[in-house]
């Protein structure tokens, strides 16, 4: 049973304090997401890549080619950090830099077929692990999980 912290409160968008039940739910959600995230990170195919490098490759997979500046914004990192990450990925043969079609001063980052194959294998491994973990859920829990998935995705996109 999850311990709740009734004194914990979360501000609402209008500035009011959230009821303690909402604060406990936010705390439980944060804790569960962090624990699952840490466990999923251990299911990587290529241990030589950092979680940040994997995240950048995932962003390129989902969103397509992007400039380093666009990637920095999407990944919530500073542009100089993204420049270093892209350079490391390029050295590993996972991305290539090409001239921007409209602005020759910029570069466009595109993932390679090697990166796509590695991401697909990683996704298969993580999905299999998560499916095995979730196999112990009953029908009601599965229904709740299916209903929660789009909401969690929406939160992840904010």
How would you briefly describe this protein structure?
The chain is mainly α. It contains six helices and two strands; from the N terminus they run H-H-H-H-E-E-H-H.
List keywords for this structure.
158 residues, two-stranded antiparallel sheet, mainly alpha, disordered N terminus, globular, Arc Repressor Mutant, subunit A, 6 helices
How would you portray this structure in words?
- By secondary structure, this protein is mainly alpha-helical.
- The protein has a single domain, classed as Winged helix-like DNA-binding domain superfamily/Winged helix DNA-binding domain (Arc Repressor Mutant, subunit A, Orthogonal Bundle), CATH 1.10.10.10.
- Helices cover 61% and strands 6% of the residues.
- The chain has a two-stranded antiparallel sheet with strand order 1-2.
- Helix 3 packs across helix 4.
- The longest helix has 22 residues.
Rg over CA atoms: 19 Å
CATH topology, which one? Answer: Arc Repressor Mutant, subunit A
How many domains make up the 3D coordinates? 1
Give the low-confidence spans: 1-9
What order do the helices and strands come in, and which of them pair?
Elements: H1 20-41, H2 51-63, H3 68-75, H4 79-91, E1 95-99, E2 107-111, H5 113-134, H6 139-157
Antiparallel strand pairs: 1-2
């Amino acid at each position: 049973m999850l311990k709740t912290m009734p004194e914990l409160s979360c501000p609402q968008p209008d500035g009011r304090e959230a009821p303690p039940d909402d604060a406990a739910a936010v705390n439980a959600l944060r804790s569960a997401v962090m624990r699952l995230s840490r466990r999923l990170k251990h299911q990587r195919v290529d241990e030589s890549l950092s979680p940040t490098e994997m995240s950048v490759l995932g962003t390129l997979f989902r969103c397509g080619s992007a400039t380093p500046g666009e990637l920095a914004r999407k990944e919530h990192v500073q542009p100089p950090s993204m420049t270093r990450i892209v350079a490391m990925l390029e050295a590993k043969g996972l991305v290539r830099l090409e001239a921007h079609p409209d602005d020759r001063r910029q570069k466009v980052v595109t993932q390679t077929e090697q990166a796509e194959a590695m991401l697909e294998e990683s996704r298969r491994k993580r999905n299999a692990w998560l499916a095995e973990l979730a196999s112990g859920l009953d029908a009601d829990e599965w229904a709740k999980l299916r209903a929660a998935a789009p909401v969690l995705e929406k939160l992840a996109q904010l």
